[in-house]
Predict the 3D structure of the following.
Amino acid sequence: MSAEPRTSQPNSDRFAWWREARFGLFIHWGLYALPAGIWQGREIAGIGEWIMRRAPIPVREYEQLAGRFNPVEFNAESWVQLAKEAGMRYIVITSKHHDGFALFDSKASDYDIVDATPFRRDPIAELAAACRKHGLRLGFYYSQAQDWHDPDADGNDWDYDVAQKDFARYFERKCVPQVREILTQYGPIGLIWFDTPRTITPEQSETLTQLVHTLQPDCLVNSRVGHGAGDYASQGDNRIPFCVKREPWETPATLNDTWGFKQNDHNWKPVGTLLRLLVDIAGKGGNYLLNVGPTALGTIPGPSIERLRAIGRWLKTNGEAIYGTQPSPFLAEQPWGAVTQRPGKLYLQLFAWPKSEFVLRGLQSRVGRAYLLADPTQKVGVTQSQAGLLDLTELRLTLPASAPDPDVSVIVLEIAGEPAVDPAPIQQPDGVLMLETCLADVTPAAGSDFRLNSDGHVENWTTPGDALSWSCKVATPGRFAVELWSSAPRGAAWTGGQTLTWTLDGAAQTMVVQQDDKAPYARSPHQSFLISRLGEATIAQAGQHTFSVRLDGVAADDATGLLARGVRLTPLA
Ligand code: JFZ
C-alpha cells in the first residue's frame, strides 16, 4: 500500500505514544487456528487465515468451526506479559478478519466468539483489561471490505453470487455497527488497523475514519482504510523502505511465513534477522508490528515466545537507541547497519563487528565522546578528518576487540547540536558506491509521472526522457561494474527490454535492460532485487563525479516501468 495517508499529523500529540513505542505485537487469532493450514487432510498453501478462501470452504462448513472453538488455555495476562517482556508497547489484535468471525461480543452479528462458540468468553474484553493493567496500548484489526461470511461483502464468490451483492448493505448492516462496537465497548483504543480496502468507496473510507475520530479523537487510523483517508502509512506486509520516511509509518511483519497459526510453518526467522529489522525500521522512522498466531487452544507457539523474549533481552540493554528516537540523519540506508538519534546523541547500530576500527564517511558533526551502549565504561577512540579536495569527512572509531552483542551492537556518539551529514552519495571504505534513488535528482520527461515513491523506488519510469542523476564522491578511483538494482513488480512478470543511456562525467553508453542476476535483500528475507548489468565504468580520479541514467526506449508490454532502487558501482579486481 504505497498510497500516502492524507491526514498525517506527524507532529500532533496523537502520535506521541506511537513515536515513543516503536515496537508492537500483532495478533492474528480466529477460527482458522483450528484447521491450522490443513483442510480435509490436505495442506492448503498460503497464509493460514486465508484457508477459507484458498481451500475454498463453503460458509456453512466453515461456520461449524465455531462450535469447536474453545481456547481454554487463553490467558490475556500471559499474552500481555509476553508483549511486555519483548519490549513491545502496544498490541493490535484481529477483532474480525476476512472470514467474518468476530473475536468480540457483537450485537450486530451472532457470528462471534460469545454467541457462537462453547468458549462464551470475550477475549477482547479480557485483553483490554490486561493491557490497561500493564500499561500497553491496544489496537484492533478490522477487515472492513472483505467478509467471506456476509453475502453482500467483498471476497466470497464461492458461496455467493457476486452480481447479487450490495456492498453498501453489508457496510451499513455489519461493518459500521461493529466498528462502533469495538470503539465503545473496550475503553480507549490506540489505533484501528483496517485492511484490503478493495471494493470500498472513497466516501465509505472517509465515513470509517470519521467514525473512529468521532468516537475516539486520539485513535489512529492506518492507511489501509483506503483512499488516503488514514492517519499513517502501513507498508506492504513484511516490506521495508530503503530510506528514511518522514511521515509516520509501520511495517506489519511475520515471525515465520503466516499470520494465523499454521501447524506446518516452521520457517522461523532467526533472532538476528528480527533485531536487524527492528533497528532498520526505527532508523528509517517507522514502527515494527510483529505478529504471533496463537493456536486454537489460546497459546502462543513456543518458537514465537523464544524469539520475542530474545528481542526483549536486547531491548533491555539497547532500548535507549530505539524508544522515542528520531530517524537517521542519513536519508539513505547505511550498508553496515542503522542509525537513530535523540538530542545530543547518535546511535550507530552495527550488524557486524569490525576488526578494531570502524570508518564512517559523511558525518559532518563534531563528535565529542563515543562509547558502547551496552557498556559505557569501555573506551571507544574517536578521530575525525576532512579530506581537502573532496571535502570528505571521515570518522574513525577504535573499538574493543569483541562485540557487545552477536547481532546488533550499538555505539553512542555524543554530538553538539543538530547532526549534520553530507547529502551526496559517498563511496564506502570497501570501494562500493551505491547511488540510491532517494538521493537522486529525479527529472521526469514532459507530461510524465516519473517520481520517487515513499519506499525508496522510482515509479512510472515509462516515458522516454525520464532521468535520474547524482553528484557523488569517489575517494578510490578505478574500474567498476555498474548495475541497476530494481524490485520485481508485485504480482506481475518482469521481462526487461527497456533501453537506457547512462552517463558518467559526460561519457554515454546505451544498453537494453535484462535480468542478469538476483540478490537477496540483506535486511528482509521477504524482499529481493533484480540486477541488470549496465556495463563497466572507469573513474580515473578521486573527486566529485556526475552519474546519470535516462530511459530512451520502453519495452513493448511494460506498463509498470522499472521499479528501480538505485545504481550500484562495485570495484572490479
Ligand atoms: C492482509 C491480509 O489479507 C492478511 O491476511 C493479513 O491480515 C495481512 C496483515 O494483511 O494482506 C495484505 C494486505 C496488503 C498487502 C499485502 C498483504 N500489501 O499491500 O502488500
Notes: Residues 7-11 have pLDDT under 50 and may be disordered. The two ends are 41 Å apart (CA to CA). The longest strand covers residues 524-539.
